[in-house]
Design a protein that fits this description.
Largest sheet: 8 strands, mixed
Strand content: 25-35%
Helix content: 25-40%
Number of strands: 8
Length: 186
Protein backbone atom coordinates (compact mmCIF):
# COMPACT_ATOMS: atom_id res chain seq x y z
CA UNK A 1 0.00 0.00 0.00
CA UNK A 2 2.69 2.52 -0.98
CA UNK A 3 4.51 2.04 2.33
CA UNK A 4 1.43 3.12 4.30
CA UNK A 5 0.97 1.16 7.49
CA UNK A 6 -2.63 0.64 8.54
CA UNK A 7 -3.72 0.51 12.16
CA UNK A 8 -6.58 -1.97 12.48
CA UNK A 9 -9.45 0.22 11.36
CA UNK A 10 -12.70 -1.18 10.07
CA UNK A 11 -12.92 -0.12 6.41
CA UNK A 12 -15.96 1.56 4.93
CA UNK A 13 -17.75 2.03 8.22
CA UNK A 14 -19.81 5.06 9.03
CA UNK A 15 -17.48 7.21 11.09
CA UNK A 16 -20.05 9.99 11.50
CA UNK A 17 -21.94 10.33 14.77
CA UNK A 18 -25.01 11.75 13.02
CA UNK A 19 -27.96 11.43 15.40
CA UNK A 20 -25.86 10.46 18.42
CA UNK A 21 -26.27 12.28 21.73
CA UNK A 22 -24.31 12.86 24.89
CA UNK A 23 -25.60 14.35 28.13
CA UNK A 24 -25.78 17.94 26.79
CA UNK A 25 -25.04 17.59 23.07
CA UNK A 26 -26.63 16.36 19.87
CA UNK A 27 -24.33 15.32 16.99
CA UNK A 28 -25.50 15.92 13.44
CA UNK A 29 -23.94 16.34 10.02
CA UNK A 30 -22.62 19.78 9.30
CA UNK A 31 -24.81 21.73 6.87
CA UNK A 32 -23.75 24.44 4.45
CA UNK A 33 -26.23 26.70 6.26
CA UNK A 34 -24.09 26.37 9.43
CA UNK A 35 -21.40 28.56 7.85
CA UNK A 36 -22.36 31.84 9.55
CA UNK A 37 -22.73 30.08 12.91
CA UNK A 38 -19.19 28.67 12.63
CA UNK A 39 -17.53 31.79 11.19
CA UNK A 40 -16.97 33.37 14.66
CA UNK A 41 -14.56 30.53 15.43
CA UNK A 42 -12.28 31.73 12.63
CA UNK A 43 -12.84 35.40 13.50
CA UNK A 44 -11.35 34.90 16.96
CA UNK A 45 -7.53 34.84 16.64
CA UNK A 46 -7.23 32.59 19.71
CA UNK A 47 -8.87 29.76 17.73
CA UNK A 48 -5.97 29.47 15.30
CA UNK A 49 -3.10 30.75 17.43
CA UNK A 50 -1.42 27.35 17.60
CA UNK A 51 -1.79 26.21 13.99
CA UNK A 52 0.49 27.44 11.21
CA UNK A 53 -0.61 27.49 7.59
CA UNK A 54 -4.23 28.59 7.96
CA UNK A 55 -5.55 31.45 5.84
CA UNK A 56 -5.48 34.81 7.63
CA UNK A 57 -8.88 35.82 6.27
CA UNK A 58 -11.56 34.26 8.53
CA UNK A 59 -14.08 33.80 5.71
CA UNK A 60 -11.55 31.99 3.53
CA UNK A 61 -10.43 29.83 6.49
CA UNK A 62 -14.04 28.89 7.22
CA UNK A 63 -14.75 28.09 3.55
CA UNK A 64 -11.66 25.86 3.37
CA UNK A 65 -12.68 24.03 6.54
CA UNK A 66 -16.22 23.49 5.25
CA UNK A 67 -14.85 22.21 1.93
CA UNK A 68 -12.67 19.68 3.79
CA UNK A 69 -15.59 18.53 5.95
CA UNK A 70 -17.84 17.91 2.93
CA UNK A 71 -14.99 16.26 1.01
CA UNK A 72 -14.48 13.88 3.96
CA UNK A 73 -18.20 13.10 3.99
CA UNK A 74 -18.11 12.29 0.27
CA UNK A 75 -15.01 10.07 0.59
CA UNK A 76 -16.12 8.23 3.78
CA UNK A 77 -13.14 9.60 5.70
CA UNK A 78 -15.20 10.54 8.73
CA UNK A 79 -15.64 14.16 9.52
CA UNK A 80 -16.65 16.79 11.96
CA UNK A 81 -20.22 16.74 13.21
CA UNK A 82 -22.07 19.86 14.24
CA UNK A 83 -22.56 19.98 18.00
CA UNK A 84 -25.96 21.24 19.07
CA UNK A 85 -26.67 22.20 22.66
CA UNK A 86 -29.78 20.32 23.78
CA UNK A 87 -31.11 23.03 26.08
CA UNK A 88 -31.07 25.84 23.49
CA UNK A 89 -30.73 24.04 20.12
CA UNK A 90 -27.69 26.29 19.57
CA UNK A 91 -24.76 25.34 17.32
CA UNK A 92 -21.71 25.39 19.63
CA UNK A 93 -18.92 23.56 17.83
CA UNK A 94 -17.62 20.65 15.81
CA UNK A 95 -16.42 17.21 16.81
CA UNK A 96 -15.96 13.88 15.12
CA UNK A 97 -13.89 10.94 14.00
CA UNK A 98 -11.43 11.66 11.18
CA UNK A 99 -9.34 9.26 9.13
CA UNK A 100 -5.85 10.79 9.24
CA UNK A 101 -2.37 9.82 8.09
CA UNK A 102 0.40 10.63 10.56
CA UNK A 103 3.98 9.45 9.96
CA UNK A 104 2.73 7.24 7.09
CA UNK A 105 0.25 5.46 9.37
CA UNK A 106 -3.48 5.73 8.75
CA UNK A 107 -5.38 6.17 12.01
CA UNK A 108 -8.69 7.38 13.36
CA UNK A 109 -8.55 10.73 15.16
CA UNK A 110 -10.94 12.33 17.62
CA UNK A 111 -11.25 15.97 16.58
CA UNK A 112 -12.95 18.79 18.44
CA UNK A 113 -13.34 22.56 18.14
CA UNK A 114 -15.72 24.69 20.18
CA UNK A 115 -16.86 28.25 19.54
CA UNK A 116 -14.86 30.55 21.84
CA UNK A 117 -17.93 31.81 23.70
CA UNK A 118 -18.52 28.20 24.84
CA UNK A 119 -14.97 27.43 25.98
CA UNK A 120 -14.30 26.16 29.50
CA UNK A 121 -17.71 24.56 29.89
CA UNK A 122 -16.60 20.96 29.29
CA UNK A 123 -18.21 20.61 25.87
CA UNK A 124 -15.00 19.54 24.08
CA UNK A 125 -14.36 16.82 26.67
CA UNK A 126 -17.96 15.65 26.52
CA UNK A 127 -17.86 15.47 22.72
CA UNK A 128 -14.47 13.74 22.67
CA UNK A 129 -15.65 11.11 25.17
CA UNK A 130 -18.74 10.43 23.04
CA UNK A 131 -16.53 10.01 19.94
CA UNK A 132 -14.35 7.52 21.84
CA UNK A 133 -17.36 5.60 23.13
CA UNK A 134 -18.91 5.46 19.64
CA UNK A 135 -15.71 4.30 17.94
CA UNK A 136 -14.93 1.57 20.44
CA UNK A 137 -18.53 0.35 20.83
CA UNK A 138 -18.84 0.02 17.03
CA UNK A 139 -15.37 -1.57 16.78
CA UNK A 140 -14.17 1.02 14.28
CA UNK A 141 -10.53 0.78 15.40
CA UNK A 142 -8.20 -0.68 18.01
CA UNK A 143 -6.90 2.75 19.02
CA UNK A 144 -7.78 6.41 18.65
CA UNK A 145 -5.54 9.45 18.48
CA UNK A 146 -5.84 13.20 18.86
CA UNK A 147 -3.38 15.39 16.96
CA UNK A 148 -2.62 18.46 19.08
CA UNK A 149 -0.12 21.27 18.61
CA UNK A 150 2.58 21.03 21.28
CA UNK A 151 1.66 24.49 22.64
CA UNK A 152 -2.11 23.90 22.76
CA UNK A 153 -2.47 23.09 26.45
CA UNK A 154 -6.30 23.38 26.56
CA UNK A 155 -6.71 20.72 23.85
CA UNK A 156 -4.12 18.52 25.57
CA UNK A 157 -6.21 18.73 28.75
CA UNK A 158 -9.25 17.56 26.78
CA UNK A 159 -7.28 14.54 25.52
CA UNK A 160 -6.08 13.73 29.05
CA UNK A 161 -9.65 14.08 30.38
CA UNK A 162 -10.61 11.57 27.67
CA UNK A 163 -8.15 9.06 29.21
CA UNK A 164 -5.68 9.53 26.36
CA UNK A 165 -1.92 9.45 26.91
CA UNK A 166 0.94 11.11 25.07
CA UNK A 167 2.08 8.54 22.53
CA UNK A 168 4.67 10.53 20.58
CA UNK A 169 5.68 13.92 19.26
CA UNK A 170 5.83 14.45 15.52
CA UNK A 171 5.27 16.97 12.74
CA UNK A 172 1.86 17.14 11.07
CA UNK A 173 1.12 19.57 8.24
CA UNK A 174 4.28 21.51 9.13
CA UNK A 175 3.23 21.88 12.78
CA UNK A 176 4.94 20.32 15.81
CA UNK A 177 2.32 18.08 17.41
CA UNK A 178 1.76 15.68 20.25
CA UNK A 179 -0.12 12.52 19.35
CA UNK A 180 -2.35 11.47 22.20
CA UNK A 181 -3.67 7.89 22.08
CA UNK A 182 -6.08 5.51 23.75
CA UNK A 183 -6.46 1.81 23.04
CA UNK A 184 -9.79 0.03 22.96
CA UNK A 185 -10.07 -1.80 26.29
CA UNK A 186 -12.77 -4.17 24.99
Amino acid sequence: MNGLEIIKMTPLKNYLLNGEESNRLIFRKLLKTDFNDWLPFHQDPRSSQYWNGLPKDPTIACKEQFNRVFERYDQNLGGMNALILKTTNEFIGLSGLLVQTVDDIQELEIGYSILPKHWKKGYATEAAKKCKEYAFYNKLTDSLISIIHIDNIPSQKVAINNEMHLSKTSVYKNNPVHIYRIFNPL
